[in-house]
Amino acid sequence: MAAAPPATTREILLAAQPGGLPGPEHFAITRKPVPAPGPGQVIVRNRYFLVFPGLRTLIGGRADGVPLPRIHVGDTLFGPAIGEVVAAGPGGPLRPGDTVTHLLGWREHALVAAADCALPGEALPDPVAHLSSGSAAYGALTRLARVRPGDTVFVTGAAGAVGTLAGPVARLLGAGRVVGSTRSPEKAERLRAELGYDAVVVPGSRSIDGQLASAAPDGIDVLLDNVGGDQLTAAVRAARRGARFALVGALSGQLAPRRDGGSAPAEIDTFRLVNQGVSLHGYRGADHPEVTEEWNRRFGDWLRSGELTFPQVRIAGMDEAPRALQELFGGRHFGTVVVELPPT
Question: What is the DSSP string of 235-247?
Answer without folding.
Answer: HHHTEEEEEEEEE
